Amino acid sequence: MTERGMLIVLSGPSGVGKGTVRQAMMNSGYRDFKYSVSMTTRKMRPGEVDGVDYYFRTKDQFEQEIANGGMLEYAQYVDNYYGTPLKYVNQTLDSGRDVLLEIEVKGAMQVRAKCPDAVFIFLTPPDIPELKHRLVGRGTDDETTIMKRVRKAADELKMMSNYDYAVVNDKVPLAVERIEEIIKSEHLRVARVMDRYMAMLADTGLAD
Ligand SMILES: Nc1ncnc2c1ncn2[C@@H]1O[C@H](COP(=O)(O)OP(=O)(O)OP(=O)(O)O)[C@@H](O)[C@H]1O
Ligand SMILES: Nc1nc2c(ncn2[C@@H]2O[C@H](COP(=O)(O)O)[C@@H](O)[C@H]2O)c(=O)[nH]1
């Protein structure tokens, strides 16, 4: 039987660098996970590709997906819906591969309730001015949207204690190293629990 993959939730305020760190992990040779492409109702930014960056959908289509039970989690974030399609996550975990979600905090807490075995990592900026600097530097949002995102970040940072790990994204390669260590050590922990469980079954004569 294939061992189920691990669900990894990477969360943190908009602009902290989740996408940048995930891309660096994929480029660093640590490709041992599949990225779950989210669904959103927000407008496509220049350079974004439907099905790669997001599944871009209308509000009606998104709400239909919710009604069909097709979302693992979803949230409204600064005037738009964002959510994780359930089918891809389940199929990929069942195939034995780890899956990484890159989502905001309300959605992460829904995953926490549904999938307590997932690993929850909060990526935090060195400070709020640096977060704003990154959002401005990214050049994807107007001033009003940036301010909405920064204000939201102040609340999101308070949720950090609900996560298993907090990682500061000061320098991308350091953040990548820290996250890879977390994932590796979580795999070792699960393997140790499984070993103990199998030994216990063997003792009772129930293992085949
Ligand atoms: N450690 C870092 N130091 C300096 N700049 C960074 C760092 N990490 C990311 N950035 C920059 O910050 C900006 C925001 O990064 P990114 O888009 O990856 O954030 P995000 O958390 O994925 O945002 P969102 O949640 O809105 O998708 C980008 O311009 C990126 O190049
Ligand atoms: N709850 C979810 N949040 C998500 C998902 N995909 C992305 N996000 C978060 O939304 C904000 C804004 O993203 P942006 O692309 O407009 O900058 C950011 O915090 C993302 O992490 C999702 O599937 N579910």
From TrEMBL:
ATP binds at G12, P13, S14, G15, V16, G17, K18, G19. GO terms for molecular function: GMP kinase activity. InterPro entries: GK/Ca_channel_bsu, Guanylate_kin-like_dom, Guanylate_kinase, Guanylate_kinase_CS, P-loop_NTPase. It comes from the Bacteria. Keywords: ATP-binding, Cytoplasm, Kinase, Nucleotide-binding, Transferase. Its EC number is 2.7.4.8. It is found in: Cytoplasm. It holds the Pfam family Guanylate_kin. Signal peptide: none annotated. Residues 5-184 form the Guanylate kinase-like domain. The keyword Cytoplasm applies. PROSITE patterns: GUANYLATE_KINASE_1, GUANYLATE_KINASE_2. It catalyses: GMP + ATP = GDP + ADP. NCBIfam families: guanyl_kin. This is Guanylate kinase. It comes from Lacticaseibacillus pabuli. The lineage of its organism: Bacteria, Bacillati, Bacillota, Bacilli, Lactobacillales.
